[in-house]
Amino acid sequence: MHPLTEPPHSKRNKILVVDDSPDQSNLICHFLAQAGFEVQIAENGEEGILKVREWVPDLVISDVAMPMMDGFELSRRIKSDNRLKHIPVILLSALWEVENLVNGLEAGADFYFLKPCDIDFLISAIREILGREEGAASSASSPGLKINLESLPYFPREDQNKVLRYLLSSYDRAARQSNRFLNGQAEFQAMNEGLRIPIQETKGRLSSSRNRFQSILNDVRDTIVIIDEGQHIILFNKAAEDVFGYRAEEVLGMPLNILLPERFRPGHREWVRTFGEEQVERRSMNERRDVWGKRKNGEEFPAEITISKFEEDGALYFSAILREVTDRKAAEKSR
Fold this sequence. Notes:
Layout lengths: L13 E5 L3 H13 L3 E5 L2 H11 L3 E5 L7 H9 L9 E5 L4 H9 L4 E4 L4 H17 L24 H24 L1 H7 L4 H12 L1 H10 L4 E6 L4 E4 L1 H7 L3 H4 L13 H13 L4 E3 L6 E4 L5 E13 L2 E10 L1 H9 L1
Parallel strand pairs: 1-2, 1-3, 3-4, 4-5
Antiparallel strand pairs: 6-7, 6-11, 8-10, 9-10, 10-11
């Protein structure tokens, strides 16, 4: 059975689509209905919040730029209502600046996808979100995060998984769209040579998505390292560069072991693998023993590390939030 027509669950999940463009909303609704979802439409944020309160959908898909009330405010109102805050919110937007991603986080949105959004990716994401909501408590149960671009605070511990999932999914969807676009570039140019300039402009815009994604985490004071299931580094923020002494480009794609003293490497790899098979989503690595990191210059240092895991499109990722505790350990030893 084609993935678009396969019913997502035994019951029909309710989805509210909020968009001021009838063409856009009708197109999305058509495919969602074919996929087995029950769908309603709202033409703007004000109508959207009224329908959310009355209908209580299982998920909301909203455009960002709308008259009367935009998607950010709609998400904010949903997440500030105790009766509705469990409802996942997907924002769709052509706006791909750092400020817009941060606005979505502040509003409590769960995902932020770049327009035009491929319908297969959208339906896949919806099924993944609804499956996660049914299997565990919603990660969207807390209100939006308060973020200041000038001086981003530490992520609240309870929100780390949501923030990292939001950012990674935003980058992942943009990267997928970029790859699909670039793969078709030659065909488009052969059809119409006049497309050369817009193709180059779009290529540059989409290929910069990873840098925009990284720039958000570069403003966070916590040291953040994200690895894939094979324990290779896929994200290394500015705070991590300061702590470990490596530039991001030096470690991306490298094994995580490069950041660990050699004596800890075998045990650490097995610990992460075992954690990936457990039911818990977050754990402190300091529960049973002290944890040490290793800088580029060979210097070792004590650290507190919280590790979390999350899945996107069937792939498992691990995020490590690290704080160096050299000064605190020294103070404790001198007592």
